[in-house]
Automatic annotation (TrEMBL):
Keyword check for Hydrolase: yes
Molecular function, one GO term: hydrolase activity
Name of this protein: Alpha/beta hydrolase
Domain GPI inositol-deacylase PGAP1-like alpha/beta: start-end pairs: 56-163
Domain of life: Bacteria
InterPro entries: AB_hydrolase_fold (IPR029058), PGAP1-ab_dom-like (IPR012908)
Signal sequence extent: 1-25
Length: 527
């Protein structure tokens, strides 16, 4: 499973030039890291270098680059003003195609050693998003731990992200393939694949060699609209920052320092979090001195901290596909729904989005448009919220003027207790359908399963994806859904459609998306 880079890649990495940035009076100068995987640069040295302070290596996240720490971000300036030497690195994402934690981890491990030797001291790594997983892979699986003291992760998906599961679902495939959302990096962030990664990592002999301190955001709806869609979709699974749930940001054997009012971008802004990082920016020889600080911080936030929990019920309805310039979808609203938020996502902007109520009238909801900056980067969102929607069947019609791929989601905010989820028993190859508040005899589940093989991980699933079962079976609410694992190693992405009836007799619809990873020995992994 652990990948080795090609000889060509190694040659490129070995040929990388380190760009030395001269010290200038008056402040820090943005580094020039170059633009190939593995290129890195030190930041401007502070006027007085404190040998007791570590150098900080900043590691970017999925689809990011070294510049994310100093372009429109004051993290670099805060570190410089506080007297720290710093370094910034580009991983494989700089090419435009994110790679797995194995490829990024292997590259990062070699550079960690090089950067530590350049400064002549150990590093503290500050990593954003997937960069935290890449860093753990480098330290644990590629033996870079001797060169690092502590690791601080900001909004890192240590248990994956349900948005990655969505990107590989049957409904989202057309759109995600067009906008580049299917790549090795996203593939490896599926929750089932990360469950597999955790099984290889949590009890590894190197896992305890470095201390990890984690920070998580829970305010996806603040600031810009950049994380609105992700936060809305993930809200079914708990508090989140618009890309990663708080539960999935927890790291086994790590210390959750703080869960704050940040979104996935603001958590890495220096003005928001740098002062909170300071107690953990210590060399390993001084780590024992900071243990009391860690214990105090941990105890202080323990009551506020949200611990990892079982995946919650779905409160989403999902559809998607292709259209020739015009398309429509219908969705059902049951009783006790306080609001619904619809989101039409396409690879092109819409000319018109019309919402038609059950009585045939056109609903005059405000439609907001924005471009995605996360998993579906480059896709256009068109969203509208309907407060106190009437029960019944609603219709949404979209027009773009030219052929397009789309993903349509409805997020329900309900006052009722109707719940649906798929739950996997440990070691089992079956998913249990669980419902609450619905009439069992009226509830049916149809489902499709897409297989994305291990080898297609390198291609991000663009090739090698295979529909192995498509709505061939209707299940009662108490039945089990079997995962046919005959295709071998890879991710089996299950899209289940639940149709039922509430106790009051109103029609109920939800979509549940679940990924299951099967390894070479036939073991199954799922959140």
């Amino acid at each position: 499973m652990l990948k080795k880079g090609s000889s060509l890649l190694l040659a490129l990495v070995l040929a990388v030039t380190v760009f030395i940035v001269p010290t200038q009076a008056g402040g820090a100068i943005n580094p020039n890291t170059g633009g190939i995987p593995g290129s890195w640069s030190p930041g401007t040295n502070p006027a007085v270098i404190d040998p007791g302070k570590p150098a900080i290596l900043f590691v970017h996240g999925l689809n990011g680059s070294a510049a994310s720490w100093y372009d429109n971000n004051d993290m670099y300036q805060f570190a410089y003003n506080s007297g720290y030497q710093t370094a910034y690195i580009n991983l494989h994402d700089i090419t435009g195609t994110s790679q797995s934690m194995w490829d990024n981890g292997q590259l990062l491990a070699a550079k960690i050693k090089e950067i530590s030797e350049y400064f002549g001291k150990k590093l503290v790594i500050v990593a954003h998003s997937k960069g935290g997983v890449d860093t753990q892979s480098a330290l644990v699986h590629y033996n870079a731990y001797p060169y690092v003291s502590n690791v601080i992760t900001l909004g890192s998906p240590h248990h994956g992200s349900q948005l990655a599961d969505l990107a590989y679902s049957s409904w989202a495939s057309w759109l995600s393939s067009l906008v580049g959302a299917q790549n090795p990096g996203t593939y490896s962030m599926q929750t089932s694949y990360m469950a597999y990664f955790r099984s290889l990592t949590n009890n590894h002999p190197n896992a305890g060699k470095n201390k990890f301190f984690t920070f998580a955001g829970k305010d996806w709806n603040s600031g810009s609209t950049a994380h609105f869609f992700g936060g809305l979709y993930l809200s079914s699974y708990g508090a989140n920052d618009g890309v990663v749930t708080v539960a999935n940001a927890h790291l086994p054997n790590g210390t959750m320092v703080k869960i704050g009012n940040w979104n996935h971008s603001s958590v890495k802004q220096g003005s928001n979090t740098f002062n909170l990082l300071k107690p953990y920016l210590v060399l390993q020889t001084a780590a024992a001195k900071s243990s009391s600080l860690v214990e105090i911080a941990s105890a202080k936030d323990k009551k506020k901290e949200e611990t990892p929990q079982e995946e919650q019920e779905s409160q989403s309805f999902v559809r998607g596909g292709q259209h020739d310039g015009q398309a429509s979808e219908t969705f059902t609203v049951e009783n006790d729904v306080s609001s619904v938020t619809i989101d039409w996502i396409g690879d092109k902007p819409l000319h018109q989005l019309e919402i038609i109520a059950p009585d045939g009238s056109v609903h005059k909801a405000k439609v907001s448009s924005f471009v995605d900056e996360d998993v579906f980067s480059g896709a256009w969102h068109h969203t509208a919220t309907i407060n106190k929607p009437g029960a019944g069947e609603w219709k949404v019609s979209a027009a773009s003027g030219e052929p397009s791929a789309y993903l349509f989601t409805v997020a329900y905010n309900t006052k009722g207790k109707n719940k649906v989820k798929l739950q996997k028993e440990q070691g089992s190859k079956k998913l249990k359908v669980k419902t609450d508040g619905l009439k069992a005899e009226k509830t049916k589940v149809t489902y499709s399963i897409d297989f994305i093989g291990k080898d297609s991980e390198k291609l991000g699933g663009k090739q090698g994806k295979k529909r192995i079962k498509q709505q061939e079976q209707q299940l009662a609410a108490v039945d089990e859904l079997s995962i046919p694992t005959t295709e071998g190693t890879g991710v089996y992405n299950v899209t289940a459609e639940i149709e039922g009836e509430t106790a009051e007799g109103f029609k109920y619809q939800r979509t549940v998306i679940k990924s299951v990873f099967v390894d070479e020995q036939g073991n199954t992994f799922a959140p």
